[in-house]
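2024-03-11 09:14:02 DEBUG pipeline.ingest accepted 1 chain
2024-03-11 09:14:02 DEBUG pipeline.ingest length=302
2024-03-11 09:14:03 DEBUG pipeline.predict start
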Amino acid sequence: MVQLYHRYGALLATLLIAATAIWVLMMVVLPYLVMAEYSFHPNLPMMQQGGPDDVYTLSNYASLFSGIDLLNGELPDDFRVFLRTIWGSTLVTFISLVVCYPVAWHLAKAAKPEQVGLLILLLIIPFWINEILRTFAWYIILAYNGPLNSALLGMGLLDKPYRWLSGSGGVLIGMTYAFILFMMFPLINAIETLDISQVEAARDLGAPEWQIHRRIVIPHAKPGIAVGSIMVFVLAASSYIVPAVLGSPGTRWFTETIYIWFFEGQDWPRGSAYAFILLGLCVVFILSVMRIFRVGLTDIAK
């Protein structure tokens, strides 16, 4: 704050801070406050809102868990979708980490400096296209008579076309592709700061490559892994376009359930409660990742 005033002067710095505060208040704080207010009220007709029946309640939050019978294995549909979203987002995060780690290592330490810029540009260029267009491109690729099935049939890897869009496969592929760069760049930034002499010393002592990465590179890259995991999980859990386009009725995402309660069910209180439950899930995941990797906010900010 002090540096801002020293750099831009009192008037300009005050205007910048005021504009930022107004933007955060209008675009972030107030909408969340309105949704929080909605989430604690019953869904009543407009004429009854504000009347004696309009009282604060936790029923909208409890509705997600009502009807659970673990003994008989019965779970309500919305709760099944919630669990599917947790599992799917976690799997997308893991797949992104597995795919990105060798590429990030190559770009950060193995590739020649003149090649790094070109390789990063090739990674970024596809993401200059709108997310909706990229998602529909995957819809065409994964279609029953699409290019992917045609290629696999031509190579003899399939006897008949596979229905990629009838299960969770298409959603996982689309989400991994959509959010992979959010794992890639934190990993690259973290690995770049590693002193390569540590790796060379381990090689001179006869350590195999897998042990070098397990004992040296991965521990050093923990902040990057934590940041990438947080960003990919949060974006995957809150995604709507990818599961809506590439999914099927049996693979509905929790964001789609929220949309249904808001706009098809016209139950804004329950939709708001579900949105805050999803927000709470993301917060729990962030705190869990920070604890597992033993990193703090300062490490993540690097």
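2024-03-11 09:14:41 DEBUG pipeline.report The chain has a mean pLDDT of 88.
2024-03-11 09:14:41 DEBUG pipeline.predict end
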